[in-house]
């Protein structure tokens, strides 16, 4: 059963400008070390960073909260090792929030073009056994 949905659109140039202005400090405030390594291994790293930023925002929206309340690093975008599909891993306050709304699974879809990255998140809870 769906307990929350969220969507976000991020301008890729905004992520690039933030990185150029603040450097690694910007990345470390928002992304986990695994996310940074993954994105920097890609040819168009800013597109991947922007998509992950959008995913984090979409997950927060599916919880009905904003990011001052939950650190963005508490939401990690990983990839299924077989399919490559994006997956969400939660820790800290994000895990606590998911548990409080009984969110069992979060489905995420990411997309990016030359200028924008988008994400759509659906938080679901288990129903009867």
Question: How does this structure look, described?
Answer:
By secondary structure, the chain is α+β, with helices and mostly antiparallel strands. The protein has a single domain (2-124), classed as Ribosomal Protein L22, Chain A. It contains five helices and five strands; from the N terminus they run E-H-H-H-H-E-E-H-E-E. The protein has helices at residues 12-22, 24-30, 33-40, 45-63, 92-100, and strands at 2-11, 75-79, 86-90, 105-112, 116-124. The strands form two sheets. Strands 1-5-4 form a three-stranded antiparallel sheet. A hairpin with a 6-residue loop joins strand 2 and strand 3. The chain is globular. It starts with a strand and ends in a 5-residue tail after the last strand.
Considering the chains and any ligands shown, give keywords for the structure:
129 residues; alpha+beta; 42% helix; globular; single chain; Ribosomal Protein L22, Chain A; two-stranded antiparallel ribbon; 29% strand; 5 strands; 3-stranded antiparallel sheet
Q: Which ranges are low-confidence, i.e. pLDDT below 50, for 5 or more consecutive residues?
A: none
Order of helices and strands: EHHHHEEHEE
Averaging pLDDT over every residue, what do you get? 94
Based on the coordinates given, report the CATH architecture: Alpha-Beta Complex
User: Termini distance?
Assistant: 13 Å
List the SSEs and their pairings.
Blueprint: E1 2-11, H1 12-22, H2 24-30, H3 33-40, H4 45-63, E2 75-79, E3 86-90, H5 92-100, E4 105-112, E5 116-124
Antiparallel strand pairs: 1-5, 2-3, 4-5
């Amino acid at each position: 059963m769906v307990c929350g949905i969220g969507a976000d659109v991020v301008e890729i140039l905004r992520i690039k400008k933030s990185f150029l202005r603040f450097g690694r400090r910007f990345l470390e405030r928002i992304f986990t070390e695994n996310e940074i390594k993954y994105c920097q291994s890609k040819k168009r790293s800013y597109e991947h960073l922007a998509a992950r930023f959008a995913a984090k925002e979409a997950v927060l929206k599916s919880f009905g909260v904003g990011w001052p309340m939950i650190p963005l690093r508490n939401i990690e975008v990983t990839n299924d090792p077989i399919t490559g599909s994006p997956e969400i891993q939660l820790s800290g306050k994000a895990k606590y929030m998911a548990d409080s709304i009984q969110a069992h699974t979060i489905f995420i879809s990411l997309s990016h073009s030359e200028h924008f990255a988008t994400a759509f998140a659906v938080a679901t809870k288990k129903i009867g056994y």
